[in-house]
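Technical note accompanying the year-one report. For the benefit of new consortium partners, we illustrate the data format agreed upon in the data management plan: each record pairs a sequence with a C-alpha cell string. No post-processing was applied to the example shown here.
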Amino acid sequence: MSLPIPAIVAAVLILGVPLVANATDTAGEGAAVQFTGRLVAELLDDGRRVRLIEKYTYVDPSGEVWEVPAGTVVDGASIPQFFWGLIGGPFEGKYRKASVMHDYYCDEKTRDWKTVHRMFLDAMLEAGVEQRLAKTMYYAVYFFGPRWETVEAKVVSLKCPEDSNVAGCEPVSSTRLTTVDLPRNMYDASQVETDIKNILKNNPSVEAIESMHPTVVVK
C-alpha cells in the first residue's frame, strides 16, 4: 500500500533516524556563503501570493551572487505541492528564504534550471535546514520542478522604406535566443517513496540523488 509523503517521513523518524542540522555537506571551501538582507513580504489578497517589500541576496558556495528585488511576487509554485508536507508550505520555516529565491529564478529563467535547483539546495543548507530534508526538497525540484532550455528562434520582421510606403516593405528573417518551458516529469509513486526513505535514512550524496530514476516516461 502506498503511503502519503508525510507518512513516509514519520515512518523513517520512528525508525530512529535523527535529524540534526548540519550544513557542511555541500559548502565550498573558503566560500563566503551567506544571505544579506531580510525576507520582508506582504500577503496579497488572493491568499496565495506574497510580494517582497525589501530586496535580499544570497552568495552561493561558488561565489555566485543571487538577488531577489523588492516588488517581486511569488507563489511557491516552483516546489511540487506533494512535497509541502515534509517541512511545511513554501513560506514557512527555515527554508522560506531559499524558497522565495528559487521561485524568482524559476520565473525569470536567466540561469539554467540545474544551477537554479542547486542554488535552492545550497541556500536551504545555509538557512539551517537539516541536510536530509534539504536533499529531499532538492530531489523534489530536480526531478519534478520547473525545467527550461534556451533555444534559437527564427523571427520575421518587416523592413520598410523611410517614406513608410508599405508596398516597399520586405520581410527580414533573423534569429534570437529565447527560453522555453519543458514538460514537467510524471512520477512513479512507489519509486518516490523508496527514494525518500533512502535519502532520509542514508543521506546520499547530491550526485547519487541526481542519478535516481523516479520519473515515468510519457510516450
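Partners are asked to follow this layout when depositing records. Residues 27-147 form one domain.
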